[in-house]
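Predict the 3D structure for this chain.
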Amino acid sequence: MQTIPHDIAAGFFLLPLAVLAALAVLLIRSFRQLRWVVAIMVAWTALTAALAASGTLADFETGHPRIPILVLTQLVFVVWLAWFSRWSGDLAQIPQLYLVGLQCFRIPVELMLAELAARNLLAVEMTFHGKNFDILTGITAVILAIWVRRDGEECMRHVLIVWNLMGLSFVTAVLAHGLLSIPYPFQLLHLSIPTFVIASFPVVWLPTVLVPVAYLLHFVSLKRCLAERTGASEGVSG
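Done. Predicted structure below.
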């Protein structure tokens, strides 16, 4: 298992906890009935930490795609929660200011990935020096949140839809590169450095915690945009 430098490890440990804490406060303050979602997030974070710390996820020789299974499992849960669950409507009531603004966590994530690459622990292709454009999502999230706060959500709806689709495309591209370059026997993408590092604690929280949070915020923001559009259309027809 790779040894992560203490300064980077501290970042990958503290940032997911801070993001989860912010999301938990937002959910509980908005809808107390969503406390079970917070409980699942906490349990999932603990589970992935235990698996990584035990070295289970660093077993690449057997060919069991444990990391992709964990990531895809959480993404399925996120899609269900944001779009198909009975609580999706409650989530869509969260103001865009928070849904968009919280995505700024992607800025420090990209800075830490660049530092991993600088220390030869990650392929440069996985950073903003290569094929990773996700830092743009974080930067524009700050700008867009300020814009939404100033002008309101309604006039920004189409901009928000485009921005969310952009953010989803960026994070999906990075996630695909990361998962396909894990050094399993069936590794499909060969970068300058295989993606060993995401099997280590606490970097494992990047694909298993932070990426699902990014998807959840995008999906809920999109659902809110579409709900507002539907409401406006019904108002016109009425």
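The chain has one domain: 6-230.
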